């Protein structure tokens, strides 16, 4: 089974944005609720009602610091209908806090700069085959437009905004979490909606913090980039390295040398292997004078060395159940100065069609 992505354009007030999202992807949202209900039961041993109760603990924080995102979630719930509530949509949006303390998704990310200064962000997103949407959002009261890929019902994830700031995400398996800091997907949305530079994105992370552990890779159109390892204990930036085509990669483990001592993870071995392989391929391209580009980076993301636990994950077995169904669901490659993104659905090594979008010239 291969993921599909509905493209949805949303504009207006937070509620109007949410209602368009919810009404346009109602079936997909209800499908994701059913999928994550099974996920929570499998990985966290809680049912949907228990998950919703835990997610509701974030309402006081968001009401105080980001009330418009709760309004958008209410719009999503009303648009999707069938009795959904704001709490149901919030539960989808804290799926990392509820589930990834028990299981980390497997994603391979890279940021790289070319000789002309252009910055690329790229990622294989490895997860269960869920219902995806590509949201193009034009808020009424903030200057930046944004376009990103996410599970239907979520408010933020992997994408870019009209200032040329892009975001990628690696899940990290770690037990620590906090209800006094922002959930991962809400924080990603905050960056895309309000950050015009890498430094502004970093400041948002510092101001609001992360409720659970992850890595957020950020780059901006001016050429500044870094991989930001985040946890409830604080964040640490891993800068790019190398004089020719400098780059930074990340998978699903913490490796910043100066991270907070309390930030402890529990990675799978394949996370180390995938990072080492991406770095090897990148150094090989650099040594051979291969500029970073959509095509050259996609070729690296197609790598199958060590399959099935490779950069391009192997196909799940026919009778796989639960988390054994994890595969490469999508690939996103962005060039931030031109504000162009390319999305493929399915394993990139199988050469799926490329969907391209641009936010060039929009502010």
From TrEMBL:
Pfam families: AAT. Transmembrane segments: none annotated. Residues 115-348 form the Peptidase C45 hydrolase domain. This is Peptidase C45 hydrolase domain-containing protein. The lineage of its organism: Eukaryota, Fungi, Dikarya, Ascomycota, Pezizomycotina.
């Amino acid at each position: 089974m291969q993921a599909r992505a509905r493209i949805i354009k949303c504009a207006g007030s937070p509620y109007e944005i949410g209602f368009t999202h919810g009404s346009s992807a109602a079936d997909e949202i209800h499908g994701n609720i059913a999928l994550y209900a099974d996920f929570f039961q499998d990985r966290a041993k809680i049912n949907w009602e228990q998950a919703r109760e835990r997610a509701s603990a974030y309402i006081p924080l968001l009401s105080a610091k980001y009330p418009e995102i709760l309004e958008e979630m209410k719009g999503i719930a009303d648009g999707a209908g069938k009795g959904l509530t704001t709490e149901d949509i919030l539960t989808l949006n804290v799926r990392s806090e509820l589930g990834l303390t028990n299981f980390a998704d497997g994603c391979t990310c890279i940021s790289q700069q070319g000789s002309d200064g252009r910055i690329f962000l790229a990622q294989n997103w490895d997860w269960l085959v869920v219902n995806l949407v590509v949201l193009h959002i034009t808020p009424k009261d903030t200057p930046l437009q944004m376009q990103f890929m996410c599970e239907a019902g979520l408010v933020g994830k992997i994408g870019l905004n009209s200032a040329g700031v892009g975001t990628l995400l690696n899940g990290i398996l770690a037990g620590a979490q906090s209800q006094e800091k922002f959930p991962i997907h809400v924080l990603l949305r905050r960056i895309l909606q309000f950050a015009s530079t890498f430094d502004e994105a970093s400041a948002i992370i510092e101001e609001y913090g992360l409720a659970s552990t992850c890595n957020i890779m950020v780059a901006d159109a001016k050429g500044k980039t870094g991989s930001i390892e985040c946890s409830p204990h604080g964040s640490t930036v891993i800068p790019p390295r190398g004089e020719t085509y400098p780059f930074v990669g990340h998978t699903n483990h913490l490796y910043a040398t100066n991270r907070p001592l309390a930030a402890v993870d529990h990675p799978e071995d394949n996370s180390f292997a995938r990072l080492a392989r991406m770095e090897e391929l990148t150094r090989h391209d650099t040594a051979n004078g291969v500029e970073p580009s959509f095509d050259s980076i996609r070729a690296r993301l197609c790598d199958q060395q060590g399959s099935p636990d490779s950069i391009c994950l192997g196909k799940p077995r026919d009778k796989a159940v639960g988390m054994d169904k994890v595969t490469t669901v999508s690939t996103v490659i962005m060039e931030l100065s031109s504000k162009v993104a390319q999305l493929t659905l399915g394993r990139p090594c199988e050469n799926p069609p490329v969907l391209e979008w641009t936010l060039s010239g929009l502010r």
